[in-house]
Structures are given as structure tokens and as C-alpha cells.
Amino acid sequence: MNSFFSKSLNLLLTVVIGFFLSGCVATRLPQASSSPWEIVNLETESNPLDISFVNDQKGFLVGTERLILETDDGGKVWHERSLEIPTEDNFRLVSVDFLGDEGWIAGQPGLVLHTNDGGKNWTSLSLGNKLPGDPYLIKTLGPDSAELATTAGAIYKTIDSGKNWEGLVSDASGSGGIRDLRRNEDGSYISVSSLGNFFSVLPQGQENWEPHQRASSKRVQSVGLQPNGDLWMLSRGAEIRFLEDSDDLDSWGKAIIPILNGYNYLDIAWDPSDIIWTAGGNGTLLSSRDGGESWEKDPVGDLVPTNFIRILFTKSGPGDTTKGFVFGERGNLLRWLG
Q: What span, in angstroms and rounded, lies between the C-alpha atoms of 217 and 334?
């Protein structure tokens, strides 16, 4: 009997202590006194996935369920844009990119759209099942030229408006299929395998993915570049890691866990002032002004009951203003006020 009560007491204490500690971790993070973000009403239940601008004012937003929106005021107000897209599929438009008037949109399954007049007119290219995987990311390179990456880790280039595509990767299997893929400014790529058990890099000009092990037993969510060119990694368990040695892609620092609230971080980005932003489930939007040493909750993020899936800072040209957006599910979007 004494043993029974002893075990019960120990179990109760464990639960109480665990609850107390988790509560402390979840609530001890301070909230910022103000926010540089504002809520944008998109009037849609579709998920916004990507944004790109033709110039400082005109831009396009794409997303799930054939979502295409256009803005003429730098992203303050968005209105629906109707394009001629095949009606047989409920396309998920995953990527849009402009370089001046030259622009491309990639969609799933097997859809590419191209414009060379700033989005006034678009040509639809159906890729069908010609490529391994579905389009995932598209990058405008110049007139009639673009690179297209797929969910299988394959990368293709066209220089004739999409009539022909040249494969740039000799063995896409080195990427392990992808759950996340990013193209860097120098033309290199970083991908995370579909299971999150490793990440791969593809240096510019190389034909083979180079796989690297994850930093811990936690599955990897995403990997990308810091402003200084070193890597960052987001893993399950709300872990953030930064690379310690630029020459060793396996030299990860200790995990940073700003807040444990049961939600993973899904993206991280640096604004022009070098403030770090990370976002995740249930309106989680955090910032750090000291390189990740300390963090604050953003008050506007707390007002939006959605999963934030992406953070983007972008500008269309050298003289244009930087624009920032946080993408949330079910039509939620935040715009950076600077």
C-alpha cells in the first residue's frame, strides 16, 4: 500500500512539475510593445504561398486552389486576377518570380505560366508527367529564360520560353525527394529530404546533390542561408540551429528553443535591420535583435489564429523598397511596415 501511494505521489509530482515548467517556458517570453506588421485582408480561404513584384508597386501573389491575386500599391490591397488555366485540375500555384517584366508561375500538377509584359498576358505551359516530381520553385533568369525545380529534386533550365527544358541535375535521388527547397542568389540550392532525415546542397554548376546529416535526432523542417552566407536549420521540437564553421556543413551549434508552446517553427528570415524573425503554428511569430540570444513575441502574430508557414523579404530592383510578408494558412497574410 505504501509503495502504491509513493508511486502515485511521485507521478503526481512529476505531472505538476512538468506542467509548471512547461507553463513557465511558454509564458516567460516577453511580448514586444509594438509590431512592424499589419494584417492584410485577402478575402479568401486559400493558402497564400508566394509573392513577387514586377516593380515597386505592382506584384502577384499565388497560392492553393488556383489562387492568383494582383496588387498595384506595393501589397497593401490585393484583388483577384483571372487567368486562363486548365479547368480539369484544382491547381496549387506554389511559386512566382519576376525579373522586370519577365515572369513565371509554377503550379502543381505540372503547370507553368510565362509572361514577358509584366503580367498583362500569360502563356500556359502544361508539363503533364514529363518531369520527375511536380514543379516546386521557379526562378526567372532573363528574357525567355528560367530555372524550374521539382519535388523530386530535379532542376531544369529553359532559354526558349519553356518550349524545351535542359536537365541540370544528373541524379535527383541525392535530394531524397523534398519537403523544402530553396535557391540561393548565387544559383546554388539547398533541400530537405521528404522524411526530414537529412539535407542536401547543390553548389552552382554542379550536377549532383551533396547529402548531409541532420544536427540531431529531430527531423529537419527547413534549411537556408543566413545573411552572412552560413546555414540555419529548423527542426522538430521548435529547435533553431546556426552553423558554426562555414567550411564544415556538419558543424551545428547548440539548439536554440525560444519558446516551447507545442508548435514547430516553419520558417526563419532576416529583415533589412538584421532582426531575426521566425514563425510557426498557432500565430507563433517571434523576433530577436541580438542574433538569437533573446526573443520576443510579436503582438500582431498573437491576433491571428493560423499556422504561419513562410516569411519573405523581397524587392523588385536595387532602387525599390524592401517588402516583407508572413504567409498564413486560410487566407492570412501579414505585411511588413518597416
A: 33
Residue 252's DSSP bridge partners are 243
SS3 label, residue 36: coil
- Cα 70 to the chain's mean position, in Å? 20
Kindly state the helix (H) or strand (E) to which residue 7 belongs, with its residue range. helix 2-27
pLDDT reading at 8 higher than 50 = no
> Around 102, how many Cα atoms within 13 Å sit in the side-chain half-sphere?
16
pLDDT in the model for residue 83: 86
- Residue 149 CA to residue 203 CA, distance in Å, equals 14
Tell me phi and psi for residue 226, to 5 degrees. -75, 165
Q: What is the mean pLDDT of residues 280-286?
A: 95
Question: What grid cell was written down for 106?
Answer: 509554377
Q: Round to whole Å and give the CA distance between 329 and 64.
A: 10
Q: How many other C-beta atoms can be found within 10 angstroms of the C-beta atom of residue 52?
A: 22
Query: In angstroms, rounded to a whole number, what is the distance separating the alpha carbons of residues 43 and 4?
Result: 58
Look up residue 252 and give its DSSP letter. Answer: B
What is the spatial distance between Cα 75 and Cα 53, in angstroms, rounded to a whole number? Answer: 9
First to last CA, the chain: 65
Contact 165, 197 (CB under 8 A): no
Quote the cell numbers at residue 228: 552572412
Q: What is residue 100's predicted lDDT score, i.e. its pLDDT? A: 96
Q: Give the residues across from 47 on adjacent strands.
A: none
CA 313, CA 295: separation in Å to the nearest integer?
20
Q: What is the pLDDT of residue 18?
A: 41
In angstroms, the Cα distances linking 144 to 26, 105, 115, 120 are: 50, 13, 9, 16
Which residues fall within 8 angstroms of residue 157, CB to CB, at 6 or more apart?
141, 145, 146, 147, 148, 165, 166, 168
Among the listed residues 313, 333, 300, 338, the one whose alpha carbon sits nearest the alpha carbon of residue 33? 300
Residue written as grid cell 509548471: 20
Query: Which residues sit opposite 142 in a β-bridge?
Result: 145
For cell 532559354, name the residue. 159
Enter the C-alpha cell of residue 9: 505521489
